[in-house]
Design goal:
Shape: globular
Oligomer: single chain
Structural class: mainly alpha
Strand order of the largest sheet: 1-2
Largest sheet: 2 strands, antiparallel
Strand content: under 5%
CATH class: Mainly Alpha
Distance between the termini: 32 Å
Order of helices and strands: HEEHHHHH
């Protein structure tokens, strides 16, 4: 039986003690994509524009998108003292925008 979304999310970790640090943005996104598909990401966005969540008015290039994601996730990530719900919205928005850029 496949794992539920809640079970997958519970196993999602960004801190890797073997590396003694947090994963890169690409590692975070890859781990998130394993846990969350497009439909679940859209549920976290709750009819909000992903650009607005990340603070953009127009579609940025990939470099600007990664930079903004890093800034926001370091502020809002639960491992850094932020709120889990806000971190999930940021990751879902980043995931959706990178899908559009790919």
């Amino acid at each position: 039986m496949p794992k539920s979304f809640a079970e997958k999310l519970a196993s999602y970790r960004t801190y890797d003690p073997r590396k003694e640090g947090y994963g890169s943005v690409d590692e975070w996104k890859a781990a998130w994509d394993e846990v969350m598909g497009h439909e679940e990401a859209m549920g976290f966005l709750a009819d909000e524009n992903p650009l607005t969540i990340l603070g953009f008015d127009v579609m940025p290039d990939l470099k600007a998108l990664k930079k903004r994601f890093r800034e926001l996730i370091m502020l809002h990530h639960p491992d850094k003292g932020g709120e889990k719900a806000q971190a999930q919205r940021i990751i879902a928005a980043y995931s959706e925008l990178t899908r559009k850029l790919a």
